[in-house]
Amino acid sequence: MVNPTRAAHRQTRLILKFPSGTTGFSSTATTPAHAEHFDEVWVGTEVRDPETRRMGFVQPTQGYMNYRWLASQAGSKVRGAWFDHIECSAQNFLDQAYLSVLAGARELTLFSLNDLMAGHPGDALLAAKWPELCGLAERVQRKPGRGIAFYKPAGSEGSENLTWRIAGMIGLPVLPVAHYPMDAAVAFLPVQAAADPKLLDNMRRHLKRGATLVLTPALVRALGPEGTQLADVDEGAGSEADSARTMRMEGESVDLDTPLEVDAALKAGDCRVQMSAGIGERQVPFLTARAVGRGRILVLNVRTFSDSDSARRRVFVGAKEAWLAQDSGASG
Predict the structure, then answer these.
(1) 195: which DSSP letter?
(2) What pairs with residue 44 in β-bridges?
(3) CA distance 264 to 278
(4) Beta pairing partners, 188
(5) Which of these ranges, 145-149, 180-184, 247-251, 320-324, has the smallest mean pLDDT?
(6) Is the dihedral of CA 288, 292, 296, 301 positive or negative?
(7) Bigger pLDDT: 54 or 239?
């Protein structure tokens, strides 16, 4: 497509628009590497209402994370964000605009003209907040992003660690990056990082610089014996999903209103257990720490739902909605 277009019209500027979804790029025809063939890149930041069945069950931070991750690869070519009204309340629609601007978007594209002509409650809300958004955009453009580097190499996948979305939702200043963040003081390395064939070498160099590396049990497992030795934990042969009802730190125990999903296979070696999670009568390490040279390694026992889990939930909710509709019709 690129070569014939430029051969016919040399002045044509080609824009590549990525969809809102980073986990599937490696298994689709469109990959971040394609950005180099285009003049500019637009990023889909649409997340819709997280409670809807067809397109929901997505953390609102996904659009921001998607944009930042692609910008870490395509750089200044990434210019604009693209979102829509589909399955959005007025606030959902406005939230997409704020997350796009906070991610660094210099332009916003609203899809589609048909929806804009039809009218949507979010249009008036966006118009009212437009001066504030423009002021926010100016401040964002003047300052580089700072935060915890979250390393996800291009072409990587990981069903247990869709954690950047979750981290953003609990307020952690996560900065997704596609290249190993050697200059970062703190780096989060989920299982996706294992796609980097030089990961262990980079980790050792980073630790010599005094970095703090946060690993997940899934990554330690993927790294094999060398990862186990480096983190000084026993991650087990496979993940064991379970739910913790209590958390313990420095002898104090706290009950959780909502169970926390952890990997029950994790066990500590000689490293320090800073926090543990209670599963029945058993305590499972939740956060461990080990000094390595000038740096240190933390293992954070997080295990999130996967894209397949979301798909199964959509099917379940869809079946439930159909049953309720049928039951309502029969009773009426």
Answers:
(1) G
(2) 82
(3) 10
(4) 150, 214
(5) 320-324
(6) negative
(7) 239
